[in-house]
Amino acid sequence: GSTLLAGCSSNAGIDQLSSDVQTLSAKVEQLSNDVNAMRSDVQAAKDDAARANQRLDNKVFRICK
Predict the structure, then answer these.
(1) Structural domains of the chain, count
(2) What is the pLDDT along the chain (65 residues), one digit of tens a residue?
(3) How far apart are CA 60 and CA 56, in angstroms?
(4) pLDDT (0 to 100) of residue 4
(5) How far is CA 50 from the centre of its chain?
(6) 21-39 burial by CB neighbour count: b if 16+ within 10 A, else e?
(7) Gap between the terminal Cα atoms of the chain
(8) Segments forming the whole domain that contains residue 60
(9) Sign (positive/negative) of CA torsion 42, 45, 47, 49?
(10) Distance CA 35, CA 48 (A)
(11) Residue 2: inside a domain
(12) What pLDDT does residue 25 have?
Protein backbone atom coordinates (compact mmCIF):
# COMPACT_ATOMS: atom_id res chain seq x y z
CA GLY A 1 0.00 0.00 0.00
CA SER A 2 2.84 2.47 0.66
CA THR A 3 3.88 2.64 -3.00
CA LEU A 4 0.29 3.44 -3.94
CA LEU A 5 0.14 6.27 -1.40
CA ALA A 6 3.62 7.63 -2.23
CA GLY A 7 2.05 10.04 -4.74
CA CYS A 8 -0.14 11.67 -2.11
CA SER A 9 1.36 14.99 -1.09
CA SER A 10 -0.49 15.33 2.20
CA ASN A 11 -2.48 13.56 4.84
CA ALA A 12 -5.56 15.21 3.34
CA GLY A 13 -5.09 13.15 0.18
CA ILE A 14 -4.72 9.96 2.20
CA ASP A 15 -7.78 10.87 4.29
CA GLN A 16 -9.78 11.46 1.10
CA LEU A 17 -8.72 8.10 -0.31
CA SER A 18 -9.67 6.41 2.95
CA SER A 19 -13.06 8.12 2.90
CA ASP A 20 -13.59 7.12 -0.74
CA VAL A 21 -12.72 3.49 0.06
CA GLN A 22 -15.19 3.47 2.98
CA THR A 23 -17.89 4.94 0.72
CA LEU A 24 -17.23 2.35 -1.97
CA SER A 25 -17.24 -0.46 0.60
CA ALA A 26 -20.64 0.67 1.86
CA LYS A 27 -21.98 0.81 -1.70
CA VAL A 28 -20.64 -2.68 -2.46
CA GLU A 29 -22.31 -4.00 0.70
CA GLN A 30 -25.62 -2.39 -0.31
CA LEU A 31 -25.38 -3.86 -3.81
CA SER A 32 -24.66 -7.27 -2.32
CA ASN A 33 -27.75 -6.96 -0.10
CA ASP A 34 -29.83 -5.87 -3.10
CA VAL A 35 -28.64 -8.87 -5.14
CA ASN A 36 -29.50 -11.24 -2.30
CA ALA A 37 -32.98 -9.71 -2.01
CA MET A 38 -33.48 -10.04 -5.77
CA ARG A 39 -32.33 -13.65 -5.62
CA SER A 40 -35.16 -14.55 -3.24
CA ASP A 41 -37.66 -12.51 -5.30
CA VAL A 42 -36.63 -14.39 -8.45
CA GLN A 43 -37.01 -17.73 -6.67
CA ALA A 44 -40.49 -16.73 -5.49
CA ALA A 45 -41.44 -15.74 -9.05
CA LYS A 46 -40.13 -19.07 -10.37
CA ASP A 47 -42.16 -20.94 -7.76
CA ASP A 48 -45.30 -18.96 -8.66
CA ALA A 49 -44.76 -19.66 -12.36
CA ALA A 50 -44.29 -23.37 -11.71
CA ARG A 51 -47.53 -23.50 -9.71
CA ALA A 52 -49.40 -21.59 -12.43
CA ASN A 53 -48.05 -23.94 -15.11
CA GLN A 54 -49.11 -26.94 -13.05
CA ARG A 55 -52.64 -25.54 -12.72
CA LEU A 56 -52.78 -24.99 -16.49
CA ASP A 57 -51.48 -28.50 -17.14
CA ASN A 58 -54.16 -29.90 -14.81
CA LYS A 59 -56.91 -27.95 -16.62
CA VAL A 60 -55.71 -29.05 -20.06
CA PHE A 61 -55.50 -32.65 -18.86
CA ARG A 62 -59.09 -32.52 -17.55
CA ILE A 63 -60.38 -30.91 -20.77
CA CYS A 64 -58.55 -33.36 -23.05
CA LYS A 65 -59.39 -36.61 -21.29
Answers:
(1) 1
(2) 455 555 556 788 889 999 999 999 999 999 999 999 999 999 999 999 999 999 998 888 777 76
(3) 6
(4) 57
(5) 24
(6) eeeeeeeeeeeeeeeeeee
(7) 73
(8) 28-65
(9) negative
(10) 20
(11) no
(12) 98
